[in-house]
Amino acid sequence: MELRVIDKTDEELRIEIGGEDHTFMNVLKGELLQTDTVTAATYDVNPEQSGGQTDPVLSIKTESGVDPLDALAEAARGVQRTADDFTDAYRAGIDA
């Protein structure tokens, strides 16, 4: 996964996430939207732009005074916790 910041201000971030698709982006966007300091989160994959599939661009807007990179890091930790919880539940289910 490659990350490339396209635009960044104090409360907004646009970042390209290389090598990912809708599956990961929907999970990340969902986690961002559950983050209290995030006011908006969306992503776009525009295949018409370059004649084929492009890497998704994630857009984040946060409350005043909250760095969107911090919000992204918090959401990434939330995705990791969810994956860990799923793994634990799965292991408990097959061990039962």
Summarize this, please?
This is DNA-directed RNA polymerase subunit Rpo11. The protein has 96 residues and is of the alpha+beta class.
Architecture overview:
The chain has 96 residues and is an alpha+beta fold. It has one domain (2-95): 2-Layer Sandwich (Gyrase A, domain 2), CATH 3.30.1360.10. The chain is built from three helices and four strands; from the N terminus they run ββαβαβα. It has helices at residues 22-33, 47-50, 68-95, and strands at 2-8, 12-18, 38-44, 57-62. A four-stranded antiparallel beta sheet has the order 1-2-4-3. Strand 1 and strand 2 form a beta hairpin. Helix 1 crosses helix 3 (68-95). It is globular and about 50 Å long. The N and C termini lie far apart (36 Å). Belongs to the archaeal Rpo11/eukaryotic RPB11/RPC19 RNA polymerase subunit family.
Tags for this entry?
96 residues, alpha+beta, Gyrase A, domain 2, 4-stranded antiparallel β-sheet, 3 helices, 46% helix, globular
